[in-house]
Amino acid sequence: MLKHEVLSRLTETKVVAVIRGSNAEEAIALSKAAVQGGIPAIELTYTTPHVQKVFEALAEEDVLLGAGTVLDPETARHAILAGAKFVVSPHFNEEIATVCNRYGIPYLPGCMTIREMVKALEFGSDIIKLFPANNFTPSFIKSVNGPLPHVRIMPTGGINLNNIQDWLSAGAVAVGIGSDLNKAYAAGGFDAAVELSRKYMQQSAQ
Questions:
Q1: Residue 26 annotated as catalytic
Q2: What are the backbone dihedrals phi and psi of residue 134, each rounded to the nearest 5 degrees, phi first?
Q3: Active-site position among 3, 14, 32, 129
Q4: What is its EC number (predicted)?
Q5: Looking at the whole model, is its pTM more than 0.90?
Q6: 12 labelled catalytic
Q7: pLDDT tens track for 42-98
């Protein structure tokens, strides 16, 4: 899949499930629940032990797989070779950007300031992850797009069913959701995570 195709799918999808499992088995179950609930993009975080197993388990699923919590270029390359079609980090890292550019993979770095965003743009980032988004309000996107109208923002952290539509209406090209899925899975198991995923997709389509 070419870089522009991945970016198009991310912006069409609008919802990316950020999967953090206490182990590979939990991450696989959470990912499959999200897919069954209609979320077509999954970010597998490198905080999950043995995350390689999760990539392998989802290889045949009809889902856009990405890697999250990528902190260094070595991890970025590992993720890409494991099948990640996009790479996400909580910060901006020039070396990660270089690796992603080399392989033609979108890099979505976490940024909070205009300075960080401009630097990320200079290194080829097409979508900026606003993280943690719970430190901001949706109006922040409009404030950024004033001086930087071409910046595309994906807020992550603090997104829930009550505010997802506010962020999308404010101009977010997509949102990252995660902690809610873990809570639903812990409280009600697989079916609860599937149902919550469906609700997120319904909200994003309004």
A1: no
A2: -70, -5
A3: 129
A4: 4.1.2.14, 4.1.3.16
A5: yes
A6: no
A7: 999 999 999 999 999 999 999 999 999 999 999 999 999 999 999 999 999 999 999
